[in-house]
Every structure is written in C-alpha cells, then in structure tokens.
Amino acid sequence: MIHIFEILKAILYGIVEGITEWLPISSTGHLILVEDWLPFAFSNDPTFTAEFWEMFQVVIQLGAILAVVVLFWEKLWPFSKKKSNEQKRGTWRLWLRVLVASLPAAFAGIVIDEVLEALTSKDIDGWLYNSTVVAVALIVYGVAFVLIERVNKNKTARVGSLEELSFRTALCIGAFQALSIVPGTSRSGSTILGSMLMGVSRTTAAEFSFFMAIPVMVGASGIKALGFLSYVGEASVAVPAMAWVTLAVGCIVSFAVSMLAIRFLMDFVKKHSFAPFGVYRIVLGVIVLLLGLLRG
Predict the structure, then answer these.
(1) What share of the chain is helix, strand, coil (3-state, %, to 5)?
(2) What is the per-residue pLDDT for 2?
(3) For the stretch 12-39, what's the b/e string if a residue is b when 16 or more beta carbons lie within 10 angstroms of its beta carbon?
C-alpha cells in the first residue's frame, strides 16, 4: 500500500512538472510547494530523501524535454531530407542562437553555485529552495507579466519569427533565463518575459523558450544525476528500488502531460496575452504566504 502511495505521488509530480514547465508559472516552485505537503516516504534516511528529491525534481524534466523534441522534430532536426540546403543552414543558425542563449544560465548554474557553496557552505538550493522565496518570486513576476502586457497592448512586435532573432537578442534572453535560478521565477516565464521586453512576439517567445530549455535542462539533469550518484557512492547508500520506479514514472508522466501543455500554450498565445498567468501567479503567491504564516 505504501508503494502505491509513492507511485501516486510520482504521478502527481509528473503532472505538475508537465503542466508548469511550459506555462510561465514555475515548475520548480510548484514542485517545492507540493513536496512540502506530500514528500516521498520510501526511505527513513532524511539525508537520502533530501538528496534524492533534489535530483528527482530536476531529472523528471527530461520527460518534458522529450515532448519538445517530438513536437518540434522537423524544425529542430538539421538533417531532414524534407529541408532544402538553405533550410538546413537556418536550423543550424537556430541551434547556434539556442546555445548562445544558454551561456548565462550555464554560468549561473555552475559557477555561481560552486562559489556560493565555497563561501557559505550552502549552495543555491540550500539558500533559496523554500516556500517563502517561491511565493515572493511568483508575485513579483506575476506583477511584471500584467504590467508588460498592458504596456505592450496594441504594439507591433519587432521580432515576429525565429529567423529574425539576432544573436545579441538571444544572449539577452539567455540572461533572463539565468534569473530562473531563483525558484518560483519560472524558466519559461523569465525567458518569455525577457523576450517580450526585447520586442519579440508572444508566439516566437514561447517557441524559443521551448528550444532554450533543451541544452539547459539536459545539462542540469546530468549534473544533478551525477551528484546524486556521487553521494550514493561516497555514502555507500543502498538506493531503494522504489526510488528508481518513482523517477521513471515521473519522467513518463511529465512527457505525456507536456505534449498537451505545449500544444495548449501555443494555441493560447495566438489569441490571448500572458496576463492571466500573471494574475494566477499573484493569487498563488499570496495563498502560499498566507499558508506559511498559518503553519508558522
């Protein structure tokens, strides 16, 4: 019975990840909030549970990333026989923009994390991964979305397609992506927000945000997985079979749900603004703060 509950939790985490990874409402923030109420309980070792959760919430993003690859395969694959030579070159240029945009997040996620841990004995997760930080980030970015949509109302986007996206603009958008190191910010939310500030259309901003996620999330997942395996080896800890089962279930569910969430967002932004997501963030952030006060 206990194992069934753990699998149900993994399914819930996968659903939350699949929905919130692509909508600008923060997947990490939502996972932290859910974990506060429904933590995994297949181990009596609190250190192992903490290490596993830190890895789990990042690695299940691989399922979500696979959904992007499947849905946008033709646009992302430069060797497609259906493409002309010029179209293939365009695909390579798109990947170069994505890699350039990934540099700030890579710097923030690796260099800053190591420096912070060396100076304070706590990494970014230790300092920032709590419900209060999540709530504040949800509210701040929610307000930003509402205000930017009002300012941009009736304005024509300067960049209307991925082909029009310059390397300089891609790097600036990447700098906004680096801000998502703060939980509750939302990787997609920060990149879409940055894109709109740079004059990019909603549809192009959403697509580029999807593609930017591929190298960043694959890299982050690899780092977290290696860190967890290193901990297991150094501590000589036996990993329960249920841990691997929940990880697999979370990845599979996040993939399936992401397929639906991405389609929904692309259809939504063609007809609507991001303001409703901003309002949702503000309401959720206030609720989280109130619950924190009641629990405290």
Answers:
(1) 80, 0, 20
(2) 54
(3) ebbbbbbbbbbbbbbbbbbbbbbbeeee
Q: How far apart are CA 60 and CA 176, in angstroms?
A: 23
pTM, rounded to two decimals: 0.88
Nearest to 211 by CA among 162, 265, 268, 157: 162
End-to-end CA distance of the chain: 31
Q: How far apart are CA 138 and CA 286, in angstroms?
A: 9
- Decide: residue 226, CB within 10 A, 0-12 exposed, 13-18 middle, 19+ buried: exposed
Distance, CA of 278 to CA of 285 (rounded, Å): 11
pLDDT-flagged residues of the chain (< 50)? none
CA 267/CA 202 separation, integer angstroms:
11
Would you call 211 helix, strand, or coil by DSSP?
helix
Query: Distance from CA of residue 32 to its chain's centroid?
Result: 13
pLDDT in tens, 96-117: 999 999 999 888 877 777 777 7
